[in-house]
């Protein structure tokens, strides 16, 4: 199967990928169309997680562990990893979230804050799909203020740590094999990370019900009660929230890419529908107002691809800072909200049923807009860079 740039990539940014990267994108597209798209609406409607065979298929494509030398299949760029997030989200944002969480938040925590021994022990197991991970940072009373407001406490007790607290909105926390738990050290007040098998006594997870976005992702409330974790499972290089922030910095740009992918999915569905739906004696794609909505959507997508491409290039160059990924996340998710609304509008009443896909992109946009830093928090990070003044409180 030969490589063809997406028609929604109007300026052909994807053509800048290497031949190896393009081959992987082609294989990924084929897998998603054959294995994910046929079942995704049913899973979304029932709030069911993807079959573990899908996780294994993604692992076999080498999507887990792309940035880390212990598990990297071939030399690849941050731009390529962004395109992977886009390709996943254009089929389903929950699947993109799964890969981003496993590859970035979970494996990233171990790669950034773990020792070499921990990297060697754990990263290959996540990369192969043997283990499914979750990232436990957000709490019932601590979201945007996680840097200062964590209430989960870890107390050193000889060669062990005893952890008590609660986490909320933890993606796949009720089905994961291992969850990375971030907790405040009772003695020095610093945030530290822990590799916690979910079979550990004292770990209790309950799926959050009633969620109307990213329904395939199994978000959970987690309660940690006198949970004992050996010192060997403490991320050995996690000594403050700086390491947690470093992990988030790596993944925030890929969330921006996923926002673009969600926009692309809605746009492609709208273009297809505009070429099929007949009203007033002709395809609605031949009406001026529909073309205006499509052109505006394509403009948002094209501008967003340009932004995320550059921010990923900066990550490869080692020049990306928090404000760069924050601006990308805030901008692309805002444009995504506009785009999915315009695309849903093209469908009229048909736009609210899953048969036409667009309502799934429309609903999922609300979760992408909020997670990994709300628009407001990200604009404050950018505002601090602009003015030199912090305005968080």
UniProtKB/TrEMBL annotation:
Known EC number: 1.3.8.6
Cofactor(s) it depends on: FAD
Keyword Oxidoreductase: yes
Residue ranges annotated for the Acyl-CoA oxidase/dehydrogenase middle domain, each copy included: 134-226
Record GO terms (molecular function): flavin adenine dinucleotide binding; glutaryl-CoA dehydrogenase activity
Pfam families recorded: Acyl-CoA_dh_1, Acyl-CoA_dh_M, Acyl-CoA_dh_N
Keywords: FAD, Flavoprotein, Oxidoreductase
Residues covered by the Acyl-CoA dehydrogenase/oxidase C-terminal domain: 247-386
First-tier enzyme category under EC: oxidoreductase
Domain Acyl-CoA dehydrogenase/oxidase N-terminal: 18-130
One BP term from GO: fatty acid beta-oxidation
Family affiliation: Belongs to the acyl-CoA dehydrogenase family.
The protein's name in its UniProt record: Glutaryl-CoA dehydrogenase
